[in-house]
Amino acid sequence: xxxxxxxxxxxxxxxxxxxxxxxxxxxxxxxxxxxxxxxxxxxxxxxxxxxxxxxxxxxxxxxxxxxxxxxxxxxxxxxxxxxxxxxxxxxxxxxxxxxxxxxxxxxxxxxxxxxxxxxxxxxxxxxxxxxxxxxxxxxxxxxxxxxxxxxxxxxxxxxxxxxxxxxxxxxxxxxxxxxxxxxxxxxxxxxxxxxxxxxxxxxxxxxxxxxxxxxxxxxxxxxxxxxxxxxxxxxxxxxxxxxxxxxxxxxxxxxxxxxxxxxxxxxxxxxxxxxxxxxxxxxxxxxxxxxxxxxxxxxxxxxxxxxxxxxxxxxxxxxxxxxxxxxxxxxxxxxxxxxxxxxxxxxxxxxxxxxxxxxxxxxxxxxxxxxxxxxxxxxxxxxxxxxxxxxxxxxxxxxxxxxxxxxxxxxxxxxxxxxxxxxxxx
Length: 426
Ligand code: SF4
Known about the structure:
Number of domains: 3
Bound molecules: iron/sulfur cluster
Structural class: alpha/beta
Oligomer: single chain
CATH topology of the largest domain: Rossmann fold
Strand content: 15-25%
Helix content: 25-40%
């Protein structure tokens, strides 16, 4: 087990829940997940978290760098990349960094970009962007779900964030009459566990939630829709109004309402409208709202935009397609695992030099000109933004391999090779 620092515990960083979790090595190279109670492992973990230890030994794990066809040590590759990139101006260069890496590494990257006049873009799961846009970046403590009399789940939180299910089940079984109501486009895990299900077509969910918000007294939604009533919204979208009216009456008649919003990409259309309507619905009801971001640190996006002028992947794709980008450095994320080929291919094919730093081999890394191995996020220590929006420290589960770098180390060495001073994030 890793030793505990004064202010940090090991955490699973595979989603925004940042569950305390740990791993142990049996000395023969077998790593397994553990949950020592004294470190606060009280909420368990989901299957994804349990498999995180396995990734350490995955056959695709990257432990050595590459420049062209030649393998090389991370630092030597980095030196060659910095030298090659220096032939281009800062404005022709861009860095895309994964927001879910420790804040220290993300800020070091942003600071170095600012110093070199390099365009900075931040990678976050596309499903998080609508929630961030609606300002839904922090949750109340999850334990408070158990105090609600009725929980309205929009989307399928039991699938996207399985550990939330424990608090919802505590709510359902805590007292007679408590209800979980699922509003979703298909019957998922949440729907199967719900006391009541409302199935809405994927194209109609935004309309359903907007009508519900209006019927619950959300003035902002009503004004945004030209003063239409819930009945009129339903009529325009061919949604049975009785379902909206019945649910609105129950929500208004319940003392403590909780709302959970999960956005898994592709589950419904117009997610930005859904997020905005759910926000207003919760405010009108005086309900507590748990918006579930997919990635840890996605809540940092607005601050990175404000403070460092960071843009997003879409902006980079446009710049690459337009021939503006000559050098692209992608750090910690794998666009090829999330974006369709037509979107990620220009990123790796259009610039003259593409550098990728990552932990596991992928199609994007294989197509890049230069590659440097990075730690897995749970092999380093640092800070993340917890689901409550507060910084939370974490320590490594296991030591990193000597050949791989953290994002902070990568930035420090890039600064040295580029002749810059020490990287200051603040
Ligand atoms: S819910 Fe998220 S943070 Fe918790 S164990 Fe699962 S993947 Fe990891």
